[in-house]
Fold this protein.
Amino acid sequence: MKAPSDSRLARHRERVDRLRESMRERFDQGVDAVELVQSLALQTDGFLVELFDEAAEDISSDDRLAGEGAILAVGGSGRAELSPWSDVDLLFLDGGHGASFAEFTARAVRDCWDVGLKLGHGVHTLDGTTALARSEIEFATAAVEARWLWGDRGLAEEFRQVFARRVVAGRMSRFYRDCLEARRDEWARHGLSASQLVPDVKRSPGGLRDVHLVRWLGFCRHGTTDIDELVRRGALLSRERDVLIDGHRLLTGIRVDLHLEAGRAQDVLTRDEQLRLAESRSVEAGAGQRSVERFMQDYFRHTTEMARVVERFAARNRPARLLEKLAGWCRIPPRVGPFRITRRAIDTDSEDRDRVAGSLESTLALFEAVAVHGGEPSLELQDRITEAVESWDPEITVEARSRFLSILGHTGRVGATLRQMFHTRVLDHLVPAVTHARCLMQFNQYHSFTVDEHTFRAVEAAEALVDDPGPVGAAYRAIGRKDLLHLALLLHDLGKGFDENHSEVGKRLALDTARRLGLDESDTGRVVFLVHRHLVMEQLATRRDISEPGVVIEFSHQVGSPQTLRMLFALTAADIIAVGPGKWTDWKADLLTELFDRSLLVLGGERPSFQLQERLESIRNSVLERSATGSDGDDLGLESDWVAGQLEGLSPQYLASTPVETIEDDLAAVSRLQAGSVHVDGFYHAETGTLQLRVLVGGEHSEGCFHRIAGTLTALRLEVLGAEISTALDDVAIDRFHVVDHDFDGPVTDFRIEEIGRVICDAVRRNVTARQLAERHQVYGRAAAAGSVSDFPTRVVVDNQSSPTRTIVDVFAHDRPGLLYIISRTLFQLGHSVELARIATHVDQVVDVFYVVDREGQKILDGARVEEIVERLESAITQLERQGFFETDAAATDPSDPGDQGK
């Protein structure tokens, strides 16, 4: 066999490059992307045929190789749709006439790779191909689009006939079902929603793969992949075809753009790419919406409509199994009023469909049946309702109000029912504000879904609380008017997408909606409060020290009643859960539960200030008693006077928020701590996936130790979720850090904890700088400073009202390595001591919250000093955002530099 010359391969590589360059030029000129991918596929066909001819000629001088097998384009190549860096999908069909075709195949595959084409290929006999297609649906769906490219046309045609007969027609229900299950599995891997904010344009729900699915299912049921032919056969509605064609054109253009920009296969529409595409397409900003948000809202309108069309097409054309046919012949579906209830749908007699769709009241009776019995309205009913909505009287009758509130009052199917009402525009008629939120996105790193999708997920999350064994589940089950809670969840984010704060807009929308639904004054006030203040409980729990009585008293006064408190607790949990995976953590649940419990006591008549003093005295007595004998009966050897002195020196916040066993253990560790030494230990919480580190620092090194520890954790790539800082007698620091170790998949080992401890000890003793630590422990080289996704400004807010003994500094800034270190170091340099630190998420910014006092342990009340805090922190954070942490002066400061020793 003669090998191809280097010069020939070089010419072919240049030709492949020219094909892509030509596509880039034509794309920039505005040529339609669908035309471009089809053109590239056909040009690639011609190039491949030449390549295969050359390979065959090098192996054999006659034409016999072309009769020993066939090459078929499959998948995207078979559809004649090739994006710039897509795989070329080929099936090498061996006719079984000898070894020559196998030799030719090996050469052809190698040549394709050598010239810069990435192949997705397989080599099989006719029987082997058929068997593989019957067992692997991914291969079978690729083969649906198979077309002859080179070699024996007769063999290729035989394969198509055998495939259609043995793989598809002979097992139609199985093939249809396997196609749907494979696509659902792909949906699950890419978010299960067409409204996920970082979508895969090919694989996410509503993506290009859904257009392919219609072709595969159409081939299965009707023997054609042609969309227009499916319309002619009545399998697809003409308006559904238009949705698919428009969506296909939009997504193809975006996919081509992504490939050309990346210079490789790239199908994920990242936030950076969203920004670039919105700018390159000159999308204008609107009132309350950035240009990228308007661009993505249009994107999601297409993908959600496409996903809905595919869902309806699949249901309409699903082949009935024999058992289902027999059941349909033998069983009379139960009826509820005019509605027939089947396993899959709720329908009515054909002559009654116009009557059901003719009024809001009768339509809501249908959806009430859906909420009670499950299923969906039949496709025919959905179509009639969608068409009829605009003709309904805009006023809502008493009956309609009653039925809608009845739907909201159920548990188990409310979210699903509201989704169906949203699809048919019934919900828009009842609550006009939802129209603005349709496919609305907020461009940030916090949320995972569009506003409408998040809303329905929040309602579904609340319903799921009925089975939650914890405190929030108990609170949800105790709510008497779940309809009001579910209504508040439906409304809570509808104020987004306007210039004004969304909670303020939401307050007005909630008031308008409550009046439209005829709620009385009491119910209206409750719904308006829940919508207007839906963020307050999480903000207090994650940003404030709720062991301070004033915080709980003020919050309880706002809430007003135990029932409203339960609703707000459940709403807050559901809202967080619906944001996206991993947002609801045991840590947040514990903080919210503590605030709920404390507030419930206040609303029940307890005085928290008395309760706190009583608790502190009880803790002191308990620790003294346990320390004398040890919690397990062993003598700890702690002098009662020493323990009493330590307890008097520890802060009320530490005593109120720390379990007795932990206080006892801390005191025992302090008693063993040698003068001037540093001790680090920790343990891994499997339930939360977090690591708790305890750092004890002797008085010699305690000053400024907090920011040094924070810098160490940054250098070790540990994400800090929160920190508690306490000081015992003799200036011994007892610091706790709650962190996530992203370098470990699974439990953090004792060895890793010991390694972290050694590094912290070095830093606290000022033997090493943060930059030196980062360079020592970096994995992939120093990363550049990351840009901010949103345009929220850095903000520093000093609060001297919420705490009677400490100044609270709230820092709103974009999350990036070193932020906690920079803030805490700056506060130390200003002569302030941090007593408590918490890290919360606010949209796509973090909120670092610090409870601080001056060197005398007092609040910072002087106006000039408060202004200095704001200016110095904003300046330090600006430098961090501009340069990145490891290039800042702070990261490189020599540990013995007086500038790092405070004022």
User: Anything to note?
Assistant: The two ends are 81 Å apart (CA to CA). Residues 333-430 form one domain.
